[in-house]
Amino acid sequence: MPKTTNQIEALSQIAQAITSDLYLDDILRLIVTVTAQTLRSKICSLMLLDEKKQELIIRATQSISESYNKKSPLKVGEGIAGKAALEKRPIAVYDVTQEKEYKYKDIAENEGLASLLCVPLMVKGRVIGVINLYTSKPHKFTNNEVHMLTAIANQAAMVIENTELMVKSKIIQEELETRKLVEKAKGILMKEQGLSESDSYRTIQKYSMDSRKSMHQVAEAIVMAQAVKEKR
């Protein structure tokens, strides 16, 4: 059983990683590594939910087992992790090799896995993934261990949500910049070539398709060419 000081240190490490400049994959890898060390588990893995397919896919693990790392995705409601995601609650299994609902008995037997604790990653009541903790010997997880893994799951969910928000914000910003550039390029074509607004847009769109370049790149080229022309 890990000491409380070790748990606090682990949560502190994870909190520091969240506020760092590390990439999401690196942060998730750190989370599963620190969790495995702190809770003395054989394997810790983090699965993220593909909302379209409603599947849980392994995104990070400290395990070097090729068979475990390549195991197939789980549907929400399927297996132990899928059930934890569906029911939005932690689920513990004393011995996965004897559990009917567990889907990877062959891997568990080959890798020497016994007990399993699955905790859903939640953001505002919405499940975005599951964190899994395996032991090498049958073990009854304590309330403290469940609370610890839940705290880690909450931090992991926070960093994933923040990353998604940053990506969405960047996409929106890029879309706004593209729209402004296209409007500027349309104005140039209307003035220089006497085209209508709709014809100007279609000209940019056609060149984008023919040249296999984005609307942003085409509009930017038109604006830059006009700037060079005006400097002459």
How would you describe what is shown here?
The longest helix is centred in the last third of the chain and has 51 residues, at 143-193. It is elongated, with a radius of gyration of 25 Å. Strands 3-2-1-6-5-4 form a 6-stranded antiparallel β-sheet, with helices on both faces. The mean pLDDT is 86. The chain folds into 2 domains: 4-164, Beta-Lactamase, CATH 3.30.450; 171-231, Arc Repressor Mutant, subunit A (Orthogonal Bundle). It is built from 8 helices and 6 strands; from the N terminus they run H-H-E-E-H-E-H-E-H-E-E-H-H-H. Helix content is 57%, strand content 16%. The protein is of the alpha+beta class and 232 residues long.
Primary descriptors:
single chain; 232 residues; alpha+beta; Beta-Lactamase; Arc Repressor Mutant, subunit A; six-stranded antiparallel beta sheet; 8 helices; 6 strands; 57% helix
Number of strands: 6
Query: What is the string of SSEs from the N terminus onward?
Result: HHEEHEHEHEEHHH
DSSP strand content: 15-25%
Instruction: Enumerate the spans where pLDDT stays under 50 for 5 or more consecutive residues.
Output: none
- The spatial strand order of the largest sheet comes to 3-2-1-6-5-4
Predict the CATH topology of the largest domain. Answer: Beta-Lactamase
CATH superfamily of the largest domain: GAF domain
Number of structurally distinct domains: 2
Q: Architecture of the largest domain in CATH?
A: 2-Layer Sandwich
Structural class: alpha+beta
Helical run tally: 8
